[in-house]
């Protein structure tokens, strides 16, 4: 079977619906017909795009890779077919990013500026966010990457590193190591792990490499992005999870610093060259950095750890 654009759209509809039955209703076909089409698409791609479960479907790691590319392709094709990229102007600015304190803090600051109307678009993949900037679907985005996995330069997109922070680990409050302020990575070698899926920017490969350097291969049982589900599984003691150091703890979940080796992530601001805020890139970087400083100030000891970051902020 030759892969066509309609097949990519079908994959995106299934991903958005979360189940084959809901997706079938959306596209107006029977569930068996959609299931058969999905099997043919997966055969053409040479891999399984979705896991089927009792609660619906979820993307496999390969599926997340396919979906991020599919969405990027469809965005570009839609713009070609419609003719058009509509310039937002200074009264309408399109902000993108993944749900981090940098994004939420930047939005709070931009919302306070008079004369700017903001729309928000969230995506998990930093690479896809850069593609959306390059294709003029976004004007500004907050993205992340990791040492040794720096995001590539993209034509028509400017970037600046605004902050860095160490990767932490989320444990259940009843975990034997929960009372420590710092947990050696190797001490978690025998744990079941929950990781977020490949993001196109080096995660979770960066984490896997660190585990190998610590002398073990992590036993990854779960892969997901939904914060509520992550909190639930970690809080129940079913897994431990690498996480942002600014992740909010709770009665059942604690967030602890990792050591041996220390993993780092970078926060960057990216903007569309020629876009409505391109001439205010320095101001955007300052506001994003302020948002990060405010977020880490709420985590005991994190400001001092960030001050020891090996990442140079220019």
Describe the structure.
- The protein has 3 domains: 78 residues, Arc Repressor Mutant, subunit A (Orthogonal Bundle); 115 residues, Periplasmic binding protein-like II (D-Maltodextrin-Binding Protein, domain 2, 3-Layer(aba) Sandwich); 100 residues, D-Maltodextrin-Binding Protein, domain 2, CATH 3.40.190.
- The protein is of the alpha/beta class.
- The protein is 38% helix and 24% strand.
- Helix 5 links the parallel strand 3 and strand 4.
- Strands 3, 4, 5, 6, 7, 10, 11 and 12 form an 8-stranded mixed beta sheet that branches. Strands 1-2 form a two-stranded antiparallel sheet.
- Helix 1 packs across helix 2.
Alpha-carbon distance between the two ends = 50 Å
The general outline is: globular
What is the C-alpha radius of gyration, as a whole number of Å? 21 Å
CATH 2nd-level architecture of the largest domain:
3-Layer(aba) Sandwich
**Largest sheet: number of strands, sense, barrel closure:** 8 strands, mixed
Task: List the SSEs and their pairings.
Layout: H1 5-17, H2 20-27, H3 31-45, E1 50-53, E2 56-59, H4 61-82, E3 92-97, H5 101-111, E4 117-122, H6 126-134, E5 140-145, E6 157-172, E7 182-184, E8 192-195, H7 205-213, E9 219-223, H8 227-235, E10 241-244, E11 253-259, E12 264-272, H9 281-297, H10 302-307
Parallel strand pairs: 3-4, 3-5, 7-11, 8-9
Antiparallel strand pairs: 1-2, 5-12, 6-10, 6-11, 6-12
């Amino acid at each position: 079977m030759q892969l066509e654009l309609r097949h990519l759209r079908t994959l995106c509809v299934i991903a958005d619906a979360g189940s084959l039955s809901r997706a079938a209703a959306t596209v107006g076909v029977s569930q068996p017909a959609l299931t058969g089409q999905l099997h043919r698409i997966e055969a053409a791609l040479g891999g399984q795009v979705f896991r089927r479960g009792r609660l619906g479907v979820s993307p496999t790691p390969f599926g997340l890779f396919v979906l991020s590319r599919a969405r990027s392709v469809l965005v570009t094709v839609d713009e070609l077919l419609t003719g058009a990229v509509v310039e937002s102007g200074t009264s309408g600015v399109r902000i993108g990013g993944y749900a981090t304190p940098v994004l939420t803090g930047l939005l709070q600051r931009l919302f306070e500026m008079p004369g700017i109307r903001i729309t928000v678009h969230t995506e998990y993949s930093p690479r896809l966010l850069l593609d959306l900037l390059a294709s003029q679907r976004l004007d500004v985005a907050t993205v992340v990457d990791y040492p040794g996995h720096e995001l590539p330069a993209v034509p028509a997109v400017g970037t600046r590193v605004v902050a860095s922070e160490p990767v932490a680990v989320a444990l259940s409050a009843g975990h034997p190591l929960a009372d420590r302020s710092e947990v050696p990575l190797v001490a978690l070698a025998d744990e079941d792990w929950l990781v977020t899926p490949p993001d196109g920017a080096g995660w979770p490969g960066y984490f896997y490499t660190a585990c190998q350097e610590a002398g073990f291969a992590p036993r990854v049982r779960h892969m997901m992005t939904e914060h509520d589900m992550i909190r639930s599984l970690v809080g129940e003691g079913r897994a431990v999870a690498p996480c942002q150091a600014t992740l909010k703890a709770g009665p059942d979940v604690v967030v602890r610093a990792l050591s041996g080796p220390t993993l780092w992530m970078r926060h960057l601001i990216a903007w569309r060259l020629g876009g409505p805020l391109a001439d205010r890139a320095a101001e955007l970087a300052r506001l994003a950095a302020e948002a990060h400083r405010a977020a880490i100030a709420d985590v005991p000891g994190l400001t001092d750890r960030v001050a020891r970051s090996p990442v140079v902020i220019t």
